[in-house]
C-alpha cells in the first residue's frame, strides 16, 4: 500500500524539479540575450575608434540566443553588400562574442563553443545566410 503513495509523490517531486529548472533555463537565456545586447552596443560604440577590432558591429542589429548552441543574427542592409569573405569575417567575430557570453552563462559547454555555433543570419525577416552544418565557421550566403 505504501508503494502506491510513494510512487506518485516521487513523480510529483520529479515533475516539480523539472518545471523548476525550466525557469532557470529561461532566466539564463534571458540573461545571455541581455548580455549579448549590451556587449554589442558597447562594440558598436567602439567601432569608429577601433574598426579593426569592433568594425564588425556596425553590420549587426541584434544577436539572439535560441538555445542548444543556436543563435540568430539580425544584420543591416549594408551587410548584404559585403563580399562573401567579409561577411564570413563579420560572422566569425560575432561567434567569438556569442561563444564567450554563452559559455559564461552556461548556455553551451566550452567543447560545444569550440565546435562553433549554429548561426542563422537574417536581414529583416529574410534569411540571408547560415553556418554550414559540418563546419560552423563557414557560411552559405543567399545571393
Brief account:
This protein has 143 residues and is α+β, with helices and mostly antiparallel strands.
How would you characterize the overall build of this protein?
The protein has one domain. With 143 residues, the chain is of the alpha+beta class. Strands 1-2-3-4-5 form a five-stranded mixed beta sheet. The protein starts with a helix and ends with a strand. The chain has helices at 2-46, 51-54, 84-104, 110-115, and strands at 60-67, 70-75, 118-123, 126-131, 139-141. The longest helix is centred in the first third of the chain and has 45 residues, at 2-46. It is globular and about 35 Å long. The protein has four helices and five strands, in the order ααββααβββ. A hairpin with a 2-residue loop joins strand 1 (60-67) and strand 2 (70-75).
Seen as an oligomer or otherwise, the chain set is single chain
The helix/strand order is HHEEHHEEE
- The average pLDDT value, as a whole number, equals 86
Strand order of the largest sheet: 1-2-3-4-5
Q: What's the structural domain tally? A: 1
Secondary structure: number of strands: 5
Q: So how many helices?
A: 4
